[in-house]
Write a structure and sequence with these properties.
Bound molecules: protoporphyrin IX containing FE
Order of helices and strands: HHHH
Helix content: over 70%
Number of helices: 4
Shape: elongated
Oligomer: single chain
């Protein structure tokens, strides 16, 4: 059967925002070496512009995530589902905090550490989201 219209809107917004937050980070990381070698100053400009897309997407993820919990009440789910949700919420916090620290970091090591943490935790949140959607 087809999903109801409200489910299509709810999950499309959640997945679109995840595509920007997760896919954008991975794509930007892949483009940075090529941009740096041709126009070093453009890396910071591209990163700043991406953050103006990524943070609104993160806010949409939080908002539609709460909407998901209203539509799919955790109290009616299995223990395994609830455990996956708890893990996902902790990883979402890590994803946001590490992205913010990555943005503020100045040393090469700190930029690499928080950038990798941000990309990996965002990907882990996506995988757990797919698990929750069943
Ligand atoms: C980095 C942030 C997040 C990412 C990347 C993410 C990603 C995803 C993805 C890819 C899905 C699967 C959608 C599908 O296959 O139809 C999903 C589902 C879900 N997400 Fe998120 N999500 C994030 C944040 C949140 C937050 C903050 C919450 C709760 C407050 C949340 C709650 C849920 C729930 C309950 C589902 C299952 C929805 C359903 O079965 O209808 N997500 N998420």
């Amino acid at each position: 059967v087809l999903a109801p219209a409200t489910t299509i809107v709810r999950l499309s917004l959640h997945v679109l925002a995840a595509a920007i937050w997760v896919g954008g980070q991975l794509t930007l990381a892949g483009l940075v070496p090529a941009v740096r070698s041709s126009a070093p100053g453009a890396v910071a400009i591209a990163a700043r512009r991406f953050s103006q897309l990524a943070w609104p997407a993160f806010v949409v993820l939080l908002g539609t995530g709460i909407w998901n919990l209203v539509a799919v009440p955790p109290s009616k789910q299995t223990n395994a589902w609830q455990a996956a949700l708890a893990a996902k919420l902790a990883i979402v916090v890590l994803s946001g905090v590490s992205a913010a620290l990555h943005q503020r970091a100045r040393g090469r090591r700190a930029i690499a550490l928080w950038g990798a943490t941000s990309g990996l935790s965002a990907t882990a949140a996506l995988v757990l989201g797919v698990a929750l959607a069943g």
